[in-house]
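I have a small job for you when you get a moment. Can you supply me with one protein entry, sequence and fold together? It will help me judge whether the discrete encoding reads sensibly. Write everything out right here, beneath this request:
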Amino acid sequence: MCRAALAGEGNKSQAQAVNDGIVYLMAIPYLLMGLLGYAIYRMWKKKST
């Protein structure tokens, strides 16, 4: 359904917006996991010192 809505030459800006949204939704879990890993690392390092 998304492919059919975005198919064609007239929807380039709409297709770019959908692609940007996909990248945004894909990046959030990686960012959250990175922040969680960094917080755990800091707690572990503080505890061992």
The longest helix spans residues 12-48. The chain has a mean pLDDT of 88. The helical segments are 2-6, 12-48.
